[in-house]
Amino acid sequence: MLLVQGKIKVIEQENEMNKEENPLKGLKVSENLENEKVKSLIENKVINPEDANFDKYYIINSETLNELKLQDNLKGEYYIVNYKTYEIIYSKGIEIENEMHYSLTEILEHTENTEER
Question: Tens digit of pLDDT for each residue in 28-71?
């Protein structure tokens, strides 16, 4: 997830310099609201359509990962990235200590809290 985050930072910065030559990669979430995984993430309040940065959420699937020359280990899942906040969300989520975590921020916070104990 950290590699994906680093890559989207570079893509976003290149896009800022020249939008036509360097488009943002992936599928806009706002144009894929009928997608079952997107619906589930909205229902579980992982992403919020009323968020000011909602239009910057993009779906990064296996095809996009290959295009970005990143390892594809998604197995039918995908990442949702926010090009404004650099948040990375894993559509399947990761269970840690009987609790589901979807975003890189949540996972890192959980890790930090565990290390402090």
Answer: 999 999 999 999 999 999 999 999 999 999 999 999 999 999 98
Question: How does pLDDT run across 93-117, given as a tens digit for each residue?
Answer: 999 889 999 999 999 988 877 777 6
Beta-ladder partners of 88:
81
CB atoms under 10 Å from CB of 8, counted, come to 24
Q: Report how far residue 113's alpha carbon sits from residue 90's, in angstroms, rounded to the nearest whole number.
A: 20
Q: The tokens of 93 are what? A: 């989520």
The answer to whether the CB of 37 falls within 8 A of the CB of 78 is yes
- Among the listed residues 102, 110, 116, 114, the one whose alpha carbon sits nearest the alpha carbon of residue 57: 102
